[in-house]
Amino acid sequence: MLIVCSHCHATNRIPEGRKASEGQCGKCKQTIWQGKPVDLSESQFAKYTSKNDMPVVVDFWASWCGPCKAMAPAYAQVAEQMKDQALFAKVNTENAQQLGSQLNIRSIPTLAVFRNGKEVDRIAGALPANQLQQWIQQALSKMP
Question: Mean per-residue pLDDT for 5-12?
Fold first, then answer.
């Protein structure tokens, strides 16, 4: 299984059956995935969403957005709870305007689930932790 390190963004091979949260990066020697959302730049987004064999949940947000800030703790909580089911990332749309336009992000916060570089599901608006986890589990169940 291929997993992109949440620290240095190097691609690592993890043996089947082993959890990404247990793997150590061959490049930076840190734990590959710690269950905390990773801040992605525009240039890191494509690699992170297409080179991971695990699904990637992305929160598109902005610093001026009140609902984005209100949902951030719930998003971090769900990332920790689901750390062996999906990877979690955040993209600041103020810094990644071209990406936001390319992906047709019209309102924030917008959450999207990616698998092998393709968007699987999307929802707009802030959600409490329990609804967020339920939506992610539903999106993951749609995947082959």
Answer: 92
